[in-house]
Amino acid sequence: MLNSFSQGLMSTQLLLGRRRIVLNILEDLNSAIESGSVQHYVIIGDRGLGKSSVLNFIARELSSNTKTLTIMIFGDRILSKKQFYDQLVEGFLESFSKKKNLPVDLKENYTKALSTISSALSLVSSVSFGINLGPIIQAAFTALENKRTWRKYADQAIGSINRVSKENNFHTVILLDDFDTLIESLGSDFVQDFRGRISETTSTSLISTATNASFFTRNDQPFYSFFKIYPMESLTVEEVREFLIEKAKKENVSFTDESIGRIYSLSKGWPLYLRSLTREASLSAILDHRSCVSESDVEIGLRNMLINLEPAFRANYDSLSVVQKAILRAVSKGCNTPSLIYKEVKLPRGSIGPSIERVVEKGKLQKAGKASYKISDPLFEEWLREKSIHS
Predict the structure, then answer these.
(1) Would 381 be classed as within a structural domain?
(2) Is the same domain home to 52 and 106?
(3) Which residues fall within 8 angstroms of residue 290, CB to CB, at 6 or more apart?
């Protein structure tokens, strides 16, 4: 059985309305493992909603279970297919060594050796675990030394991980953050190949996060109907209020109804912005020797945040074309339909649709309905609105 959650780990401050997603995934995974089946999961939502935090929390819970091995991979840091499988093997060996309770001095040497897979494999191969680690060691070592193709390496790595897990009564969970980024960067041949290999495993599950839902919901995509999908939405105003009430109890501050409403409208329920804005607004009140956070404190907090975010927002904005910038400025002013954007930007009518879609593909806009759009990042929208006013 998977470990139950402690009250501290499940606190409002840590998970912010994400308890149900975490519990559902872990309970479902537990049921699948107990029944001898394999299930895969993907958490889909906009950037900034806390998907990575939830994935890290799940990894933490799974790593404390004696029967699960966890491998964490960050999709936005993988540059090649070979690197992906290198990290898969590294993660497996590291997790396996921890569950086998190696002596302290050996753990220290092992950690140092993990700087390269070949040195890790050389060290591991000289240690007696009391089990047969030969298949995975030999597979990775041979692939590295002989420079075989990534498909050969993948075949041996995935197959050996699954086999060693099964032989030792472990269930391996690969946690893939930003899986859609990985899919885009490594291409269709990797995607098709990886799905095929994972589909054949009997002791390995995937838990992933993604921003682009189309890879998992369109029937022309390789991962269609492969994952159980868990949508992650913005926090509701009730969840934001719950967070602020909890914070007020812990830090001896209070929030007016107006300040709560303003924090919610600015953060749009994004956990990262909610935390930062609340911290800045609270600091404004404290510096003014007040214990009650007002709406004006929230505005001061917003100004401070926009100053801190200016370099990132400016670089993001400057990377766009003139037309894309104009579309974003138009939407920030409330022109949120193609016809209103057309009137504001004054592009040829036939080009407005494709131009908007390119901004959507870049993740700067998202559909808010059948024929309307909104800026994806709520504080980027505030920044744009401020720039438009002063331009």
Answers:
(1) no
(2) yes
(3) none
